[in-house]
Amino acid sequence: MTPAPKPRSNQHLRTRKDLLQAASRLLKAGRKPTMDEVAEAALVSRATAYRYFPSLESLLVEAPLDGAVPEPGEVFAADASADPAERLDRAEAAIHAMTYQNEAQLRMMLANSLVRGAGGEGGATVPQRQNRRMPLIEAALAPSRQRFSKEAYENLRTALTLVFGTEAMVVFRDVLPISERRARKVKSWAIHALVRAALKDSKA
Prior knowledge:
Blueprint: H1 10-28, H2 35-42, H3 46-52, H4 56-66, H5 72-75, H6 84-101, H7 103-118, H8 133-141, H9 150-160, H10 166-175, H11 180-203
Helix pairs in contact: 1-2, 1-4, 2-3, 4-7, 6-8, 6-11, 7-10, 9-11
């Protein structure tokens, strides 16, 4: 059996992206494609497609979301600011909007991830979650990176992953619950508080 590609390799990321984009194009044509059709459109073999997505359903759930996730270049295209809190707030606002607009599919992806993590039935066939929030966080912090000590920077970017993304939306929706607008304000407040704490730790 051919081993699965290394998760962090550039080739892995490119092939995975090609499959997602191919599936998205076929879905936009108005019908549910087969794995063979997706593989052909992505210019890979059927076997390769199944190495990246063990089931057609897992691919089709994620495909529409791949293009919806904001890219750093898009978020900061017109942003000349170097203020870390402002840039992080802009990045989270983009993720926040995408999350609430695609809530149903993101909940499905989260459910699949929980099944995998618990080792439940079908968990072995569920693809691992992709870390899409970290590149956006790092891009937001890039202009001010030297203002933070190494430890403070690592603590900050790690803590911010709790504010960005699907899990935060579920907490605000289900656990509290509070409105989408109120959730955005709370997350903005949390981002500014975390940046202040990281800068204070860096000076110390």
